[in-house]
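Dear colleagues,

As part of the handover before I leave the project, I'm documenting each prediction I ran so the next person doesn't have to rerun anything. This entry is a single chain, and its sequence is reproduced below.
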Amino acid sequence: MYKALYEAIPDIDGYLERLGISGPIHRDTLWLDALILAHQMSVPFENLDVFEGLAPINLGIGALYHKIVTCRRGGYCFELNALFHALLRDCGFRAWPCICRIVRGKDFTPPVLHRGTIIEMDGRLFFGDVGYGGPMPAGLLPIEDGSKRCLVDTVFHLNFKGGSWWALSRETPGGLEPILEFNTNPVDPVDFIALNYYCESHPQSIFRQIRMVNRRTPGGSCAITGDVFTQWTLGGKETDSVASQSVRLDTLEQVFGIPRESLKGC
């Protein structure tokens, strides 16, 4: 019943080509840093299937490959990090999914509703994420208490919370901003079915309430939140309305690389 969650990547080279990655696979941190950055710049985070009611979310690896690689769509954490984990596994890395809770902007303990990835190399653990619709590290973070790493233009910190829980934060002009917390214990892909169902179906799910699309860009990022398009660059921030469907579809295609045809199925 759940075999599709554990399938092999249909075409590793096709996936890497989608990310703009060429050359041999290197099982080291430098190659993984480049892979994560390329993923964040090539594959947008987006909840269009859920918010627009385009299609039910299918977490099978073959279905995810078709959506993200063949149709050049994006997805949210349960999709992007699932396909990313399958890629790592099939490239020979020791990696496993992990549960996370998004704490950014919250003054309470939220439920676990995010999927990340743990990678083990040379006896060390690293955290990687290509499916968070917000400020995420553009590379690996060593899971060591008090560790910090500057990735692109942001310094991220990891601190041990107790048990198997770790806290990820980033430096901002106003101080450290908590981003998320994750648990290093392995989680089985089948365990994300219920979490995905909540995010996809529950009326209180943020993914049902507002349109979200974002992608890292050279020197910044771009996003659609509701009917507003925002572009962050080294020169500042610019916003425009995408309330018009035609303008929005043009923006999705030209800025985020999501073809119009893929939103109708491909």
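The mean pLDDT is 97. The longest helix spans residues 29-42.

All the best with the project,
I.
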